[in-house]
Amino acid sequence: MTARDWERRLYATAHPFAYPLLRAAARRGPIVRVPGVGVVVNDASLARGILMDGEAFRKDGPGSPGELWTPVLGPSVLLNMEGEAHRVLRRRLADLFVPSYTEALCARVLEESLARLTGRLRDGADVDLVDAARVLSGAVIGEVIGLDTRTEAAYRDLFEQGERIVSMVSLRTRRLSPSQVRRARAVLDPLGDIAAKAYVAGDESTVMGRMRTLGLSEDEARGAAGAFFLTGTETVATLLPRLIALLADHGQLPRVAASGGAELLDRAIDEAMRVTTPTPVMLRSVHRRVVVGGVAVRPGERVLIATHNCCRALGPFDLDRPHPPELRRLWFGAGPHFCLGYPLAMAQIRLVARTLLAAGPLTITSRAAARRVLIPTYRHLFVRAGRGTA
Ligand code: HEM
Questions:
Q1: Which residue's alpha carbon is nearest to atom 9 within ligand 1?
Q2: Which residues contact 27 (CB under 8 A, 6 or more apart)?
Q3: N or C, which end of the chain has less CB nearby within 10 Å?
Q4: pTM of the full structure
Q5: In the CATH scheme, what is the code of domain 3-385?
Q6: Preceding omega of 30 cis (within 30 degrees of 0)
Q7: What is the pLDDT of residue 354?
Q8: Residue closest to 284 by CA, chosen among 302, 262, 271
Q9: In the sheet where 38-41 sits, what is the strand order?
């Protein structure tokens, strides 16, 4: 296996049975029926068409993510809503994560941890980017929720709590069992209380305070905090080490580090997102009979958009290949449910990546793939600043 195959190994280690099936589905055509799974979509244009059609393809019916998450998050948390109620809440939240706010938030919250990370790299230490990314994304999500304890141990703990919930879900899970719901609520309810406290305090410099100003009720803000926690922690934390590994394995680390400008780094992040697809699939439930790519889908059926297959169709990691329009940010979704946290995720990834690149040249000294995780990633990825052994 060459260094360039690590991404495949991460997927195969996380999902030894489902991953080969997912990739086999891609070889059968742009849209195929897979017994026990549903209608699988492997083509970016078809996927985009489905995501844009919120009437026929919804997140609140049988087999949809709504069915999975409503018992733990409550009924009104965007990712299980549709139609007018969803539009109204999205409109209210439109300005929550504007880039100027998210960039300032990340700079403020991550300053100390990033300075420590840079110091360790400058001292010649082997640094585990998996652990570092967990702490950093725990810090950001802690700030979003309104966590008072600002220590690395608290951030790591927050991350692990989220991971415990997300790991209950596999690519085939349709519903959580009553005991899984109980365990998830035991984590989310106390976090909801922390978020509600920040909401009531109403400080407009905090995310929860801003939600109050934007007209959300306390329950809506509490639900949103839970949704942010579940969708916005592991996605970002897993992407960071994978981004650095992809750049290293394709000999692009020095080039991106030397460029200094935002343009090449953004292209690198987009290309790493395309190849890794931190959200490998998106689910919809069919509400109206429609013909998609020659296949008639029926009400009640489940559609599994294999974002990973859609994105990998363009080929392996290549910083110099442009993305066709149908792929544009598909890893963040499209249409009414497009990732609300996009500016926050990008602000965090850009800042951390810039810091790591500035501490370089980085060399990977040791790595291993993670087992029993929903989002494929490394168990550990140690890097050292300076030219060492790979
Ligand atoms: C690399 C990081 C991330 C990736 C790849 C990602 C990906 C996605 C995708 C694909 C969707 C759409 C799912 C669908 O249509 O079924 C989505 C929705 C969402 N994301 Fe993200 N996300 C990331 C980070 C974040 C962060 C940091 C937050 C917030 C703190 C966040 C909050 C949300 C929310 C609330 C939704 C639901 C929006 C709605 O249904 O209207 N995400 N994300």
A1: 332
A2: none
A3: N
A4: 0.96
A5: 1.10.630.10
A6: no
A7: 96
A8: 302
A9: 31-34, 38-41, 302-305, 282-286, 57-58
Q: Summarize pLDDT for 198-244 with one digit per residue, the tens.
A: 999 999 989 999 999 999 999 999 999 999 999 999 999 999 999 99
Q: Report pLDDT for 389.
A: 45
Q: Is the pLDDT of residue 183 over 50?
A: yes
What is the Cα 141 distance to its own chain's centre? 13
- The answer on pLDDT for 87 being more than 90 is yes
Q: What is the DSSP string of 59-128?
A: SSSTTSHHHHHHHHH-S-SSTT--HHHHHHHHHHHTTTT-HHHHHHHHHHHHHHHHHHHHHHHHTT--EE
User: Residues 6 or more apart from 349 whose CB is under 8 A from it?
Assistant: 236, 239, 240, 243, 269
In the sheet that holds 378-385, the strands lie side by side as: 127-128, 378-385, 362-369
Percent of the chain at pLDDT > 70 equals 98
As for ligand 1, residues whose beta carbon falls within 6 Å of it are 51, 78-79, 90, 144, 227-228, 231-232, 235-236, 239, 278-279, 282, 331-333, 337, 339-341, 344-345
Tracing tokens 């953004």 back to the chain, one arrives at 266
In terms of residues, how long is the chain? Answer: 390
Residue type, 69: W
* Distance (Å) from CA 20 to ligand 1 centroid: 25
Token code pair at residue 335: 């249409």
Residue 94: partners with Cβ closer than 8 Å, 6 or more residues away: none
CA-based nearest residue to 79, from 340, 302, 359 = 340
Q: Classify 338 as helix, strand or coil.
A: coil
pLDDT digits (tens, 9 = 90+) for 17-61: 999 999 999 999 999 999 988 999 999 999 999 999 999 999 987
Nearest atom in ligand 1 to the alpha carbon of residue 141 is 30
* Closest by Cα among 348, 367, 153 to 246: 367
* Distance between Cα 235 and ligand 1 center (Å): 9
- The CA distance from 25 to 268, in Å, is 28
Select from 70, 126, 48 the least CA-distant residue to 310. 48
Residue 172: what pLDDT? 74
